[in-house]
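hiii, so i know i said id send this last week but things got crazy w the move. better late than never?? heres the sequnce for the chain we talked about at the cafe, plus the structure i predicted for it. fair warning i was half asleep when i ran it
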Amino acid sequence: MKRTIYTVIAVMLLTVACKTTKKGTENKSVAITDAVTQTSKKTAHNPINIDSSLVRKHLYTLAADDMEGRKPGTPGMEKATKYIENEYKRIGLKKFENLKTYRQNFTHEGIEMSNILGVLEGKSKKNEFVIVSAHHDHLGVKESGEGDRIFNGANDDASGVVGVLALAEYFAKKGNNERSILFVCFTAEEKGLIGSKYFGKDIDPSKFVAGINLELIGKEPKTGPKTAWLSGFERSDFGKIIQKNLEGTGYRLFPDPYPKFNLFFRSDNASLARLGVPSHTFSTTPIDIDTDYHQVSDEAETLDVGILTETVKAVAKGTESIINGKDTPTRVVIEE
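okay and structure toks below
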């Protein structure tokens, strides 16, 4: 009889323990589910929304035949400039400093030229600038020859201008940039960084905390899908900040795989880097094997809009902590 009573008590205690354990497990499951839900909500609340249809529109417009290869001083270049200006206005960018229009006009070798500048003012750090840039010029039209003679410059560098416009729209809609963002389309890069050198001669470099220059971002690099490379990676910690911000996104950034080409000094980032600004060029194209570089075959159809869109998203995410004022890159080391 006693054994039976003890057995019943033991069974009762075991049942209570199991229920308690089950309840605890259920509570843990609920807690984990809630945490996942909250994380999902947080992620969904802050997506990187870049409209691929708008990316395509910008690309095919800027690389169209009627832009005549966007050579400075030509009607085609004027048409491209007006298109970019109209986009700045639609997005709601402000004029830079004392400029009355989006154009920073100057003359070089008798040719009237314009950099195109638009500002998205920051909130708590409006006097600190992050530059997002690309060059909107290209090589124009061949003077003679059979067949296609237009250097459309789709990848070089309509793709970069597309990035500038898409990022301007993204950050303007987001509306929470603590630092000011200066969106710049430089002219005459192909003639020797003329536009960016002109811009750099009158600025106070101490106000510019970082520069991300976009060049040749419409093709898959040799490092594979969802990857890009950054020129001058070792010259500041700018690239490491981008790498940190991209963790968990599936997108990766690598150092420049073409050191022998000296690319850090061959694009517009160099004009600012020489002033000490941590300014680097973001690119995806395998230029050592790209058959369209500086050829009339560099047309919109040769680019992948998906790659271009994903690259712009990566730049938006990668520069987020700098634009929000949480990270400040080290000043660039310039020794060549």
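btw Residues 1-45 have pLDDT under 50 and may be disordered. thought thatd interest u
miss u guys!!
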